[in-house]
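Task: encode each sequence below as structure tokens.

Item 1
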Amino acid sequence: MDSNNIDCLLLFYLLKGISIDSGRNTIELPNKPAMTWFTALANSCDTPTMTTDTTDKQPDNIDFSSLALAGIQGLHPYQPGKPIEELERELGVTNTLKLASNENPLGASSNALRAIQEPLQSLELYPDGFALKQKLAEVLSVNEDQITLGNGSNDVLDLIARCFLAEGRNAVFSEHAFAVYPIVTQAVGAEAKVAPALATDHAMPYGHNLNAMFDLIDHNTHVIFIANPNNPTGTWLTADELESFMLRVPKHIIIVMDEAYFEYVTEDEYPDTLQWLEHYPNLIVTRTFSKIYGLAALRIGYSVCSAEIADLLNRVRQPFNVNSIAIAAATAALDDIEQLKMSVLVNTSGLQQWEQACEENGWDYIPSVGNFICVDVGRDASQVYDDLLKEAIIVRPVANYKMPTHLRITIGLEEQNARCITALKKVLA
């Protein structure tokens, strides 16, 4: 390049406002009186042409999935229940009844609805979970340093996997257990060891077979997930069954007791495993405000465990993972004992209503202690699900849990249950 072209290139960059560092001298833009002369000179120059070396040109099509971790490549996203708005857009139906996601038909506590007004006035501030942890510690009779807050209890399950699972390690859980267990296990590269469930003719059909789960434990097992009661089956384990199992499990293996539906259970032999924490330092209990407390939209849950394990979970927990509105609502909801009692009564009555309907119509079902019931429709449940959508009723097919003929149906109010029962009779006729 000759000297005139170099001058023109320099002037072009200067007039375009591009700074230049020669490595030896600082070049500053000319003062205003000199700008006219520089502009004239620049206009006499040809605009410099930028060239790019294409010898190492990247391919146009990149398979980004091949760049992901091996465990994530094979994952399928969690599929939530169909939203009401989506159904009404697709089919043009109205007055939709959603009994798909195990939500409380009574909604949130009035205490919670009042409490969320205060944080709405200070949305510019980051949240502080101290008040909720303090309240939980008081209600549950535990120490604050034993509590880890999560964006739903699913968030805590993910924290547990990130803390204790990795490639070369494995987690044990039951067939038909909550779908998040295989997701969080596979996402971190660990192996999922799935125990066969109890037989269909067992008193607790499709439930956790603790003996089968124990037989899968090996020297690479680091976590055992137990859902009590289990979603989607509604089956549960007694205190004696669970404690007998825990006594056999090596003490270095983390046992996760997922109790998302704990508050709904009325069975005398159902355990409160928080009382076992002192004796089992490898135990983590997870619970949620999404179910009986009616705060699913706010995404808030928690775990209780030893202070040592809680410290580890909090090391990988994202800062401010629970928002101020959720914290305020959950803290207030813990004081509404009447709402809690009413929710249990409505659910217990609704379960009885559904069990009676199943027996009268010859539908097989899995006895449940949760706020839902699994009904065997005796055919491909996805078609029955589609037919119920046309009746403006959303339930949940559970073929992804290897239960292709079952529908999981949330317990609603009496009139909601009756409407769903009538519609199910119609589509199964």
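Item 2
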Amino acid sequence: MKQEFLDYVQDMLESAQKGQAFAQGMSETDFQNDEKTQYAIVRALDIL
């Protein structure tokens, strides 16, 4: 059971890192105009 918990935590960490990487270097306006990035980040947040 402990390993299963650690797997969930690892998935959460990876999703948070991916979400951050997806938006890195983007302005707020760029983000607002990029539906694919918005979708990717929402998906990453779903995992959290």
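Check on item 2: The chain has one domain: 2-47. The longest helix spans residues 2-23.
End of task.
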